[in-house]
Structures are given as C-alpha cells and as structure tokens.
Amino acid sequence: MDMRVALYARYSTGNQSVASIEDQFRICREHAGRERWHRYLS
After folding, report:
1. Which residues make Cβ contacts (< 8 Å) with residue 21, sequence separation at least 6?
2. Are 32 and 4 a contacting pair, CB within 8 Å?
3. Which of the two residues, 8 and 15, has the higher pLDDT score?
4. What is the 3-state secondary structure (H, E, C) of the chain?
5. Please, are residues 31 and 3 in contact by the beta-carbon 8 Å criterion?
6. Whole-prediction pTM value?
C-alpha cells in the first residue's frame, strides 16, 4: 500500500528550542523511512 503522510511538529512549552522542533521532524522522518511511507510535506 502506498502511504502518504504529512509531518507536523510544534512547540508545546516555552522551554523548547528550535532544536526541539528539528528533533521532532528528524524522528518523524526516520520513522516514515522505516515504514516506507512517502512524506507528502516537510
């Protein structure tokens, strides 16, 4: 099955940094790669 996904990351507290958002996207991209999903956005 051809699965297309969109990645979404956000700040949840004032204590997070830009690196936190980048880390969220990195983790999502890695997971999508393992699942062989096609990223629609990001």
Report:
1. 9, 10, 11
2. no
3. 8
4. CCCEEECCCCCCCCCCCHHHHHHHHHHHHHHHHHHCCEEEEC
5. no
6. 0.71
